[in-house]
Design goal:
The chain is of the alpha/beta class. It has helices at about 5-40, 45-55, 65-90, 100, 125-135, 160, 190-195, 210-225, 235-245, 260, 265-270, 275-280, 295-305, 315-320; strands at about 110, 135-145, 150, 200-205, 230-235, 250-255, 285-290, 305-310, 325-330. It folds into two domains: about 5-85, no CATH class; about 95-345, TIM Barrel (Alpha-Beta Barrel), CATH 3.20.20.190. Strands 1-2-4-5-6-7-8-9 form an eight-stranded parallel β-barrel.
Length: about 350
């Protein structure tokens, strides 16, 4: 046999062997793929496969261990999902009236009126000053013994009037005390409404009481003839629940924040985390400004409802607390960077969402 014939024969044999190797390799890959596909169809085998192969786990895991691990992962996933859904249901606000809230977001609110320098808090003079400066007014309402709503913050008379007892211990006729030694008396809610007369929006806080329905009825009676804009808020979700049942058109807000640190209880723990929203389903939130930043930013981003701060006491905090929609302030005159706070840029902590009301 000549050398040329030997080369040709050797080439043919090499090509045949190469073809066989390629065919065997492809067949082997198909078999492995089919085997893995069949293997991964079973969830327990799927868990075992990924632990040993995907995560480089060296120890051999039998089918029983994989089955137990799979069941544990499944149960934990269901539990986490269930807790997440429950929490969302508990904190869910009323998101249907965002456009109605927009009218209240262009102003900041003077805490208990624009008081200071001889002008007592929650006095007619403080409310008149707030109106003159164009600020909204935050005020507190509770009942006298004879059921008349009066504007007063503290439960007792000691700090503001140097008198004994509580507001609820006196009739309106007996509440002839002056505020902080001034000539300003304790005003009735009716007097404040007549004074403001719709010039600025009101943020009305209903004080906590056991006579919830009586308080709500008295306040609603005074508001029947009032033509101005107002919001109603309270720390007590039960008061807000009563109010919503009696007049569903009123915009209500849940007050919260920093309560658990002051007096530890389950109720205050839930209030700090907005869990009482399940009762009140508020249209807005009012929260202590130096607490709950991440919670409030996430809440505002997720539900897109207004979050008011309380109580801002200096210009620095006024500008730094940008995650709030509007501020409740006292002790200074805010210099605003722009009145329409609802259209501020969203903080970088969370991705931007659409603007309020959209």
């Amino acid at each position: 046999m000549s050398a040329t014939q030997d080369v040709v024969k050797f080439s043919r044999i090499s090509m045949t062997l190469m073809g066989d190797l390629k065919e065997n390799s492809a067949l082997s890959r198909r078999k492995n793929d089919q085997s893995n596909q069949q293997l991964l169809q079973h969830p327990y085998e799927y868990v075992r496969y990924h632990i040993q192969r995907g995560f480089g786990y060296q120890k051999s895991i039998d089918l029983m261990e994989a089955e137990l691990l799979y069941k544990n992962i499944k149960q934990m996933s269901i539990a986490v999902l269930g807790v997440g859904v429950l929490l969302l249901w508990l904190i869910f606000p009323n998101t249907k009236r965002k456009r109605q809230m927009e009218a209240f977001l262009t102003k900041d609110y003077a805490h208990r009126g624009l008081h200071g320098k001889g002008t007592p808090e929650n006095s007619l003079k403080a409310f008149q000053r707030a109106c003159e400066h164009g600020y909204g007014i935050e005020l507190d309402v509770q009942l006298s013994r004879d059921g008349v709503p009066v504007v007063f913050h503290d439960r007792t008379l000691q700090r503001m009037c140097q008198a004994d007892g509580e507001i609820k211990d006196y009739t309106l006729e007996d509440l002839k005390f002056s505020l902080l030694g001034s000539k300003e008396p304790i005003p009735t809610f009716r007097q404040v409404l007549d004074l403001v007369d719709g010039r600025v929006p009101l943020l009305i806080e209903l004080k906590m009481t056991e006579e919830r329905e009586r308080l709500v009825n008295a306040v609603l009676l005074e508001l029947e003839s009032y033509q101005g804009e107002y919001l109603v808020e309270s720390f007590d979700p039960r008061i807000l629940q009563v109010l919503r049942k009696k007049d569903p058109t009123i915009l209500i807000g849940q007050l919260s924040g920093g309560l658990f640190s002051q007096k530890k209880s389950l109720s205050r723990f839930m209030a700090d985390r907005l869990l009482w929203n399940v009762y009140s389903r508020p249209d807005f939130i009012a929260y202590q400004h130096h607490r709950g930043r991440v919670l409030l930013m996430f809440y505002s981003w997720l539900f897109e409802i207004p979050v008011f701060s309380y109580t801002i006491k200096n210009q620095r905090d006024y500008h730094l607390k940008r995650w709030f929609t509007s501020h409740i302030f006292e002790g200074f005159l805010p210099v605003s960077e722009g009145r329409v706070r609802a259209k501020r840029k969203s903080p970088k902590l969370l991705p931007a969402r659409t603007s309020l009301g959209k």
